[in-house]
Design a protein that fits this description.
The complex is a heterodimer. Chain A contains 20 helices and 20 strands. By secondary structure, chain A is of the alpha/beta class. In chain A, the strands form four sheets. In chain A, strands 6-7-8-3-9-10 form a six-stranded mixed sheet, with helices on both faces. In chain A, strands 16-17-18-13-19-20 form a six-stranded mixed sheet, sandwiched between helices. Chain A has a four-stranded antiparallel sheet with strand order 2-1-4-5, with helices on one face. Chain B is an all-alpha fold. In chain B, helix 4 runs antiparallel to helix 9 and helix 8 packs across helix 9. Chain B is elongated. Chain B starts with 9 loop residues before the first helix and ends in a 7-residue tail after the last helix. The relative contact order of chain B is 0.15. Classes of the chains: A alpha/beta, B mainly alpha.
Chain lengths: 553, 287
């Protein structure tokens, strides 16, 4: 029996600029007790699809034609009251952001009781059921968890509580919208295992939406691939991932850096013909001659933060004594989970954060003791790229001004700004026609390229890139990584590449440092770290970075 | 979900949205009427608004004197038009000054060190705790009734609110990645504030200020009515209202001539401001 059956669904949004056809003839089924994955990149219509099923389309959206059948009942014509009766007990949802999904001012127990408002049983019974549910998602000490508030739980636990709430009423369909995207790799694996177990236990079906091919391959029985509002391919997970039929699926799989067995200087992108890609071998790391001066040297760096009132100051250790050196033209991958101190270390290296103990030396002088003039010199030589491709661009400035900003800040007047910005934009693979756009008129990948153009504007010696490909689609990610690789070789740049994604860093970094709780647990050449990890934590991290779907063949 | 980038500039879309709102159109018309009357006052009326003519006292509205005359025989239509000039210039001047001061203080409070923030907040709160009328009376006692006194009162009343709005938004933007990015490129504090923060915080404030213009006009009229604002014989709506107030039973047109423009412009600016707020509200975009 099919739980959910979607036939030739067309959804349109009316906007000031005309109708936008968001879903085009989408058809697929979710059979009983199966996990169906929907893969696709941002803007392909995944969210629109979920919202149409839930009857939660934005005011300007409408189902134009087609049918959505849930357990034999047609959903498209239902009025809000009828729809509301289904949402919760029959269909429920888990969203991407665990922080946003829980109400911060209600205790967990209160929220779980609220979900059971339709049942006419006593409070004690409802609480007992909640405890049972929390236990099944492995929340420690579930009895006491009921009295606690969402902020008292970590991100991974919050997401598990959200899952418990979604499954509370034993729905026959659970819609999971990128539920693990905001989680670290190790937590992601745990959450996926949990979902699998619960699905078997409760016997529901799951419609699992993700852009992460590895996750889908790990979890799902069946897969539908979406592109530009259409389902371009569907089939069993094994079939789609091992012998994809549609060109787009093939490209998508090839673009996933996890699917590159060899380290390669150039990664495939969407414009490569499927199957035509040849890896570009990574040259072995050039060991700097003994006695060479490093470009930047970090000696026992410690960063502590103080918080709270003066009579009971709490000290948090952001970075707890880290040492390494980086030479010209070399790239260090900084790997670790959120909260491990990667970003704090990066900020301290660029003197965007203070240093409590230790020393950072850039070209022979201590970074944290520089005077005003030398400080400006450092700002020119060290470029920082921040995580959010859009967030790091001033929203009211045009691309031309954004790229010209370093020249203006440093009073570089001996260049023609228009010529120079055009050149930089071309170098970043964009072209001069982007100069007049605002950030919100760019895609994520384009915004990132603007960031790259700006980072290399004044020919820096070191680029510190904090998760430069986080939030980008796989197809775009490859292009951005290739760009960084090319520029680095061309300009002899040194780079610190911060990421939690080991598959990405493998193709970029010469050396990798693994960070945990403010310390380096391991640092070494990329090949060595992947082939023979020494520390247990590195092994855990390697195991948690889900292999590419190709590996499941 | 992405919608294809259209070539239509944002402001054209905004104007389009404004023109679709009946209240917005009415607001625009009323404001244009008031501004037009004030600007072209010399051409629209042949009378001198301050010329006293004892023979023409208390004349009812007629084709010669559209709104009649007052107790000194001055043409009320001319006085209303010229009073509009006073109202408009006070409104524009004081709003511009309040905006300038409010933005600077707000940016300083939001971006500057903690002690400066606390100091400025204390200052804003102290000013806010004075009732407007008390503030006006105190200032007039100090400087004497004048247009400048009116402007100072309005600035003092408006600045704390504007500065607080700018401060809150600056605090939020201070930690944003694009500000950090600017700092990492070596931008000075002045540049961060001017180029990266200010353009992002003034939008909502300008709309708020346009909604405050009717309040300013009312303050000017109120102070002139009480004799704390414009000195006679300079025409002001408040002063006309006061002239008419004493003779309201016999010659109601004087009070009407003073009151009607106050009501109409207040309504006009309110409608315009509210529609502008809706038009630029990001939540309404794309509808």
């Amino acid at each position: 029996m099919t739980v959910l059956s979607i036939q030739d669904l067309n959804v349109k949004f009316s906007t000031e600029k005309g109708d936008f056809h968001a879903l085009k003839d989408v058809s697929f089924d979710v059979p009983e007790k199966t996990i169906v994955g929907i893969v696709g990149e941002s803007g392909c219509g995944k969210s629109t699809l979920i919202n149409s099923v839930l009857g939660l389309l934005a005011d300007n959206g409408r189902v134009d034609s087609g049918s959505i059948e849930f357990e034999g009942q047609e959903l498209t014509g239902l009025n809000p009251t009828e729809m509301r009766a289904l949402r919760g007990p029959r269909i429920s949802c888990v969203f991407q952001d665990p922080m946003g999904a829980l109400n911060p001012v209600l205790s967990v127990g209160e929220q779980m009781r609220n979900i059971q408002y339709r049942d006419t049983i006593g409070k004690a019974e409802k609480d007992a059921r909640s405890v049972e549910m929390l236990r099944s998602v492995k929340i420690p000490d579930p009895e006491h968890a009921l009295d606690r508030y969402p902020h008292e739980f970590s991100g991974g636990m919050k997401q598990r509580i959200a899952i418990a709430m979604a499954l509370m009423m034993r729905p026959s369909l659970l819609i999971a919208d990128e539920p693990t995207t905001a989680l670290d790799a190790t937590l992601e694996v745990v959450t996926l295992d949990l979902l699998k177990d619960l699905q078997k236990q409760i016997g529901c079906s799951i419609l699992f939406i993700s852009h992460h091919l590895g996750v889908i391959a790990e979890l799902c029985d069946q897969v539908a691939v979406m592109f530009a509002g259409e389902v371009v391919e569907r089939g069993s997970a094994a079939q789609v991932f091992t012998s994809p039929r549609h060109d787009y699926t093939r490209r998508l799989l090839e673009c996933d850096p996890a699917n590159q067995k060899e380290r390669t200087r150039r990664l495939p992108t969407m414009s490569d013909e499927p199957g035509s890609f040849v890896p570009v071998p990574v040259p072995p790391r050039q060991v700097p001659p003994a006695g060479a001066t490093p470009l930047i040297e970090v000696e026992d760096a410690q960063v502590h933060f103080h918080s709270g009132p003066f009579y009971k100051t709490r000290t948090t250790v952001g970075v707890g004594g880290v040492s390494f050196e980086l030479f010209e033209g070399e790239t260090l991958g900084l790997v670790g989970e959120s909260g491990s101190g990667k970003s704090t270390l990066a900020r301290t290296m660029a003197r965007l954060s203070h240093i409590t103990e230790g020393k950072v030396t850039f070209e022979g002088s201590s970074v944290h003791d520089l005077g005003r003039g030398d400080m400006q010199r450092l700002r020119r030589d060290v470029s920082v790229m921040f995580q959010d491709p859009f967030g790091s661009l001033s929203p009211r400035m045009k691309v031309r001004d954004l790229v010209a900003e370093p020249f203006r800040i440093h009073g570089v007047t001996d260049v023609d700004l228009i010529v120079e910005t055009d050149r930089l934009l071309t170098l970043a693979g964009l072209g001069p026609e982007f100069a007049t756009r605002f950030p919100h008129q760019l895609s994520g990948g384009q915004a990132r390229r603007v960031g790259v153009a700006r980072a290399i504007a004044l020919k820096p010696k070191l680029i510190i890139a904090d998760e430069p490909t986080a939030g980008l689609d796989v197809s775009v990610q490859g292009g951005v990584l290739n760009l960084l690789n090319e520029l680095r070789d061309e300009l002899r740049l040194a780079m610190v590449f911060i990421t939690h994604n080991l598959h990405v860093v493998r193709h970029v970094a010469d050396r990798i440092a693994v960070m945990k709780q403010g310390q380096f647990v391991e640092i070494g050449e990329t090949e060595t770290i992947f082939a023979r990890p020494q520390h247990d934590y590195t092994k855990t991290l390697l195991a948690a970075n889900l292999a590419g779907p190709g590996a499941h063949a | 979900m992405s919608v294809a980038v259209s070539d239509t500039p944002e402001w054209k879309l905004a104007v389009g949205r404004l023109m679709r709102e009946p209240l917005g159109v009415l607001g625009v018309l009323l404001v244009l009427l008031m501004v037009g009357g004030a600007v072209f006052a010399d051409w629209l009326s042949i009378y001198d608004p301050t010329r006293i003519s004892p023979r023409d006292r208390f004349l009812a509205p007629s084709s010669e004197h559209f709104l009649g005359t007052d107790q000194l025989g001055r043409d009320l239509f001319a006085r209303v038009l010229h009073g509009g000039r006073i109202a408009l210039s006070v409104a524009l001047a004081s709003t511009a000054i309040s905006l300038a001061i409010g933005i600077v203080l707000g940016l300083l409070a939001g971006y500057g060190p903690r002690w400066l923030d606390n100091l400025l907040l204390l200052l804003f709160d102290s000013i806010k705790s004075f009732p407007t009328v008390m503030l006006a009376l105190a200032l007039v006692t100090l400087f004497g009734p004048s247009l400048t006194a009116v402007v100072i009162v309005v600035v003092l009343v408006n600045v704390p609110g504007y500065a607080r709005i700018i401060r809150t938004q600056t605090l939020a933007l201070k930690e944003s990645e694009f500000v950090q990015a600017a700092q990492s490129m070596g931008a000075s504090t002045a540049r961060v504030l001017r180029v990266h923060i200010m353009p992002n915080v003034i939008g909502p404030l300008v709309i708020l200020a346009s909604m405050d213009i009717p309040v300013v006009i009312a303050i000017e009229a109120g102070m002139s009515f009480l004799g704390l604002g414009v000195r006679p014989p300079t025409p002001s709506w408040g002063a006309i209202l006061n002239d008419g107030f004493t003779a309201i039973r016999d010659t109601p047109w004087i009070a009407i001539a003073g009151g009607l423009p106050i009501i109409l412009t207040t309504l006009g600016f309110t409608f315009l401001g509210e529609t502008l707020r809706d038009v630029f509200d990001p939540r309404l975009k794309g509808r």
